[in-house]
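Thread: Modeling a multi-component assembly for a lab meeting

Hi all, long-time lurker, first post. My supervisor asked me to bring a structural picture of a complex we are working on to next week's group meeting, and I have zero experience with this. I have the sequence lines for every component (519 residues in total). Could someone generate the structure of the whole assembly? Inputs are pasted exactly as I received them:
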Amino acid sequence: QEKETVTPERAEEAKLKAKYPNLGQKPGGSDFLMKRLQKWQKYFDSGDYNMAKAKMKNKQLPSAGPDKNLVTGDHIPTPQDLPQRKSSLVTSKLAG
Amino acid sequence: SSAADIISTVEFNHSGELLATGDKGGRVVIFQQEQENKTQSHSRGEYNVYSTFQSHEPEFDYLKSLEIEEKINKIRWLPQKNAAQFLLSTNDKTIKLWKISERDKRPEGYNLKEEDGRYRDPTTVTTLRVPVFRPMDLMVEASPRRIFANAHTYHINSISINSDYETYLSADDLRINLWHLEITDRSFNIVDIKPANMEELTEVITAAEFHPNSCNTFVYSSSKGTIRLCDMRASALCDRHSKLFEEPEDPSNRSFFSEIISSISDVKFSHSGRYMMTRDYLSVKIWDLNMENRPVETYQVHEYLRSKLCSLYENDCIFDKFECCWNGSDSIVMTGSYNNFFRMFDRNTKRDITLEASRENNKPRTVLKPRKVCASGKRKKDEISVDSLDFNKKILHTAWHPKENIIAVATTNNLYIFQDKMN
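Re: Modeling a multi-component assembly
Sure thing. I ran the full set together rather than chain by chain. Output:
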């Protein structure tokens, strides 16, 4: 009887799929690539937000799912999604 | 120290006398090597701060509601042509040419101005004198000479100066542009891999570099582990490569992680121009430009991480972009790892070493002790187990002096300069 040895990589893959069963089932371009192309923070746009609210008076606004960083056309950033703004600039510590 | 101090690039100039660092806060700090001290013949000159300036500022794209980070992604030095030094620095969107010049004398003895700059009443001037230059304390000034903007929709990951010293390339995730150093309002697009339908996007450009000697040749690497060599003489748009370097994959080994860990984070030509080196998540590969179907050498940086890929994916470390570099004679290559470790591989002896950049574990002016990671089983006395590694302490950027055995190693927000023992 053949004994199948699982490579370390395959074992890790099994671990990951056990934790996230929906992984790798998204249609369209690769998740990582899209995430990479949209690296910059997206700020809250009050115009978008209010228009979306007006359009969907009786429905619930789509909120950020597990892919919080992947901004698609359906997801309107809310004030809660936003990271903190940067602090002011000072001299690099390497410059002493 | 603040997040702005995170070092994002390190680069020696062509003589090795100057060392530039860029950081997340958009600042550049340049160090200069001291002239050799005749009485201290056992060590080379130390590097001291020479100049520091704010290269890039954060910007906001109002149209798309996107913030443009001021983080310096790359610095590249121009070869020195006169008394001043020039470098290119880039963030995600804009490349700038900086002139760094010294001023060690100032004019004194104007007829119409006082020493403090106030104007004199001309009617009080009774004699004329010739102003003269007098020595002053050295001042190093940085001024932006060119700003190359608005040519990249995606994030710039690389800049590379051509061996003609007149042109340079800039690469983002999907496109590569060719610039002339004197011209800021135009650039030529030489590679465009953006698909007509973004749903069909399968790979992005991760790094690009000009050949050190052939001014018509450049390479770019991809997120799928391939390198394409292009010849600008073949056509204006180099979408079709002259050579494609790719190592065949064993299909039985393929996993969810295969493509991610094959993504090339850095590509560097050897000084000779005969080889190029690529860095992917777990290894460093040396390619002979004459052989496209596989690398001629492969060095494992931290193979023990292969059985940790699940957690490295969850904490995003699997996407860390490590750089690599050659020593001056192309005999040794170096790259960083985690836990403030960095690795060197001697291509001739096939020996490798792991060293650590940390103040706690190294006394100054003593030889660095080699480190060893214990992958599994019983851990020996001085070894560190994989599970004790600090994945927040990553060495992504290293640089090797072009002529001497002096290296610069950047931890998250500290810069270490090491030199080999001189007898």
